[in-house]
Amino acid sequence: MIIQFNILCTLPKYKDLKTALEAAKQDSPTPYEDVNQSTNDVLAVLDQLIPVADQLQAYYVERRFEKDNFKGSDELAAQYVPLQELVVIDLHRLHCTRYMSLMRRYKVE
Fold first, then answer.
1. Which long-range contacts (CB under 8 A, 24 or more apart) does 102-109 make?
2. Whole-Å CA distances, 95 to 13, 23, 25, 34, 58
3. Is the whole-model pTM more than 0.85?
């Protein structure tokens, strides 16, 4: 008896996120350097994360795990997880930074 596994690897749409951030940065420039820096930080991590996410997705689509007993998955995950955590942290920082800049902008005295 042969048991066949159907394994899906669904990752967030990091390319869409990067495109949206780049568009927002272009369409709505801000004079606040901390907001610009936070946006740049997220984009820099996305530049590193997107190729790894693409490799991980391809690994599962091409079912390479059947040939290497998930060794490739472990190697890619070792790269992917820390970058993905950085994206989450940087997005949170970006959100907080934008909130604080709006508070400064609309501060009522």
1. 104/32
2. 19, 16, 14, 11, 31
3. no
Task: Please provide residue 11's backbone torsions phi and psi, each rounded to the nearest 5 degrees.
Answer: -115, 155
Backbone CA torsion sign across 47, 90, 18, 52: positive
Q: Supply the pLDDT for residue 6.
A: 59
Helix (H) / strand (E) containing 27:
helix 14-27
For 8, the token pair is: 């899906």
Token pair in block for residue 15: 């390319």
Please give the full DSSP string across 40-84, using - where no structure is assigned.
HHHHHHHHHHHHHHHHHHHHHHTTTHHHHTTHHHHHHHHHHHHHH
Q: What is the pLDDT of residues 73-104, one digit of tens each?
A: 899 999 999 998 888 888 877 777 777 776 66
φ/ψ (deg, to 5) at 29: -65, 150
C-beta separation of 21 from 39 below 8 A: yes
Place of tokens 């890619």: 76
